[in-house]
Prior knowledge:
The chain has 266 residues and is of the alpha/beta class. It has helices at 20-26, 30-38, 68-79, 88-93, 105-112, 145-156, 168-175, 200-203, 220-229, 234-241, 249-265; strands at residues 9-14, 40-44, 56-62, 81-87, 136-138.
Amino acid sequence: MMMRETKPTLAVHKFSSCDGCQLALLNLGEALLELPNYLEIVHFAEAGPSDPTAHVDLALVEGSISTPEDIERIRQVRKNSDYLISIGACATAGGIQALRNLADAAAWMAALYPHPEQIEILPESGAIAAHVKVDLELPGCPVNSNQLLRALRDLLNGVEPVRERRALCMECKRQGLVCTLVSSGQPCLGPVTLAGCGALCPSQGRGCYGCYGPVESVHHESLAQRFSELGLDQAASARRFLFIQGGAPTFAEAGVRLRARAAEEE
Length: 266
Ligand code: SF4
Ligand code: SF4
C-alpha cells in the first residue's frame, strides 16, 4: 500500500462465518483506538461504518464462499479493493462449514430445516482464494489479532507482509514449551500446522488441532503413526485432519486417506 497525504481506506467484509475474526479485530484494544489515526474505516458493519460498495485501499475479508450470492459479492469486493487480505480459517480454507464438503449436504439440510428447498448453497464451502485473487492470507480460528496488526503496520509502511511458512513446533521451541506430542503424549497437529498463533494451545498444555492450516508439506503418515502409538485409531486420526481446516487441500487429502483406511479395516 502506498504512503500518501490522505489516509488509506479500509473495509471489513463478512461472508459465511461466525464473526469471530471481526471480533479479533475489535479486540485489538488500544491499537484499535489508534487505527483511525492511520486508516479511514469506511466499511465495518459490525463496528458501525457501512458502505459495502466503496472502493478501498485495503479490504479484510472474513468467512467462506458458500452460496452463489457470495460469489457475486466477493467478485465485487475484489473489484473495489486494491489489496485484499482473507482472515481466518473460514476465509482461507472454507472453515468448519467445509465439513459438509465431504458429507451429504442435502441430507443435512433436510434434517435441519423445514424448507431446505428454499436454501441455495454451492456444492462446497470454499476459500476466498478459490474465487478471486487474494494478496495475503492470515489463517486461524480466529485470526490472531497481533498477526493482523503486524500485517496492517507493514502495509501502512509500504512493506509487503511476511508470509509465515514455519510449523507451529518452531513457536513451541522458541518459547521453551514442553512438547505436547513427544513429552506429554497428546495427539498434536503442531508438526504439520502453520505457526502464527503463538503456540496458544501447547502453552496451555493442549495439543494443537490445526486451526492455522497446513504447512507446505504434510507428512501425515508419520504423524498418524505417532497418534496410533498414543491410542488413536485411524478414524480418530482422520477426524483430527478433517476439522476446522479440513477444507484445506492437504489436510483434506490426509484425512480422506486415513478415513478410507479406517473403513477398510472395519
Ligand atoms: S475462522 Fe473461526 S472465528 Fe473466524 S469467522 Fe471462521 S469460525 Fe469464526
Ligand atoms: S495451537 Fe493449533 S489449534 Fe491452537 S490456536 Fe494454535 S494453530 Fe490453532
